């Protein structure tokens, strides 16, 4: 996906009704020794980092349970859409663990330190509406009979992104992600570098031409 220029947006959904991702298989984990657990979690953390580093926007469609590593997967995405009936939580402390695939870092960046600490310390599960109220998800929708309401809303959101200039969207994502990790002056410099890369693109020229000619732009990602 990273190198496929035809990909504009990636939506993560589950094929299992009622479950986005339930996290690690604890029965499997119980059979591992300490070294194996450490290796497993390191690989999982690397996977989440790879997802977070995808150059195009990513959307998690949470139509059911997103627990432990399942919520960490959703947090690795840029945007999250949840059914109001979905259940989410970093429940690791209820099993003698702590989040190990990015949860302790991405959750506070998403909802703030205090809320993140409360959710992680208690291992509490929250529904889609509660997640929306604290900013954990971008949108919450009532579940439908098919059980894919969040996925349908995620597709609608993806279709809002699709017509926009692909390279500009990628540079916007890069500027936000890198800028959030540094002070604002450094972030401004990062924005400037991303903007400079966008200036010579054919899509920028097309956007200006379309505005002058009062028509919709036809972006090609170049």
From TrEMBL:
The keyword Lyase applies. Pfam families: ECH_1. This is Enoyl-CoA hydratase domain-containing protein 2, mitochondrial. The keyword Lyase applies. Keywords: Lyase. InterPro entries: ClpP/crotonase-like_dom_sf, Enoyl-CoA_hyd/isom_CS, Enoyl-CoA_hydra/iso, Enoyl-CoA_hydra_C. One of its GO terms (cellular component) is mitochondrion. Belongs to the enoyl-CoA hydratase/isomerase family. GO terms for molecular function: enoyl-CoA hydratase activity.
